[in-house]
Amino acid sequence: MSDLLTDLQRLESQLHHPGVRLDESRLQALLHAAFHEVGRSGSRYDRAGIVRFLAEQGRNVAYPEDVVADQFAVQALGPAAALLTYRTAHRQPDGTLARHTLRSSLWVNDGAGWQLLYHQGTPAGAPW
User: Fold this and answer.
1) Mind giving me the DSSP string for 82-95?
2) How far apart are CA 119 and CA 44, in angstroms?
3) For residue 51, is it within any domain?
4) In this structure, is residue 18 part of a structural domain?
5) Under a CB-based contact definition with an 8 Å cutoff, are residues 113 and 88 in contact?
6) How are beta strands 81-91 and 31-38 bridged, if at all?
7) Which one, of 118, 105, 101, 95, lies nearest residue 32 by Cα?
8) Cα 24 to Cα 19, 45, 52, 73, distances in angstroms
9) Distance CA 103, CA 66 (A)
10) What pTM does this model have?
11) Based on the structure, what is the number of domains in the chain?
12) CATH code: domain of residue 68
């Protein structure tokens, strides 16, 4: 189980990296064709929508978001599916943390590698 946690945590963390978020081909590889999300805001996104949203966000912010993530846990749901849960916050330019969020991601593996099928973010209080 620790290998699964390590693998999925690495893949999920790539999605927090500004360079990956702006790389459409990398996002296409990480996100399943049927990917969908309910974001922290409550907005719904499909794969094309989230790729477009991340590209626009990257062009419109003065500084790249520094995502702080911890409390990763994984639950295998079968040989080719797993639920990853964790917390995030965004480090502000002054060093404070904001936008605390509980996150869950459903990852599937069709034999070619893990892809994110579903993601949800829920606003949370500050634990740090």
Assistant:
1) EEEEEEEEEE-TTS
2) 10
3) yes
4) yes
5) no
6) unpaired
7) 118
8) 10, 16, 9, 27
9) 16
10) 0.89
11) 1
12) 3.10.450.50
Say which residue the tokens 């094309």 belong to.
Answer: 48
* Positive or negative torsion for Cα 44, 51, 14, 77: positive
* pLDDT tens column, 10-48: 999 999 888 888 888 999 999 999 999 999 999 999 999
Long-range contacts of 98-107 (CB under 8 A, 24+ apart): 99/40, 99/123, 100/124, 100/125, 100/126, 100/127, 100/128, 101/40, 103/69, 105/8, 105/12, 106/77, 106/81, 106/82, 107/8, 107/11, 107/81, 107/82, 107/83
Q: Is residue 128 part of a domain?
A: no
Measured between alpha carbons, how far is 123 from 5 in angstroms, rounded to an integer?
A: 23
- Chain segment 61-71, per-residue pLDDT in tens: 555 568 899 99
Contact status, residue 74 vs residue 83, Cβ threshold 8 Å: yes
| SS3 of residue 112 by DSSP | coil
Q: Are 68 and 57 contacting, i.e. CB atoms less than 8 angstroms apart? A: no
Q: Domain range for residue 65?
A: 2-123
Rounded distance between C-alpha atoms, residue 29 and residue 15, angstroms: 11
57, part of any domain: yes
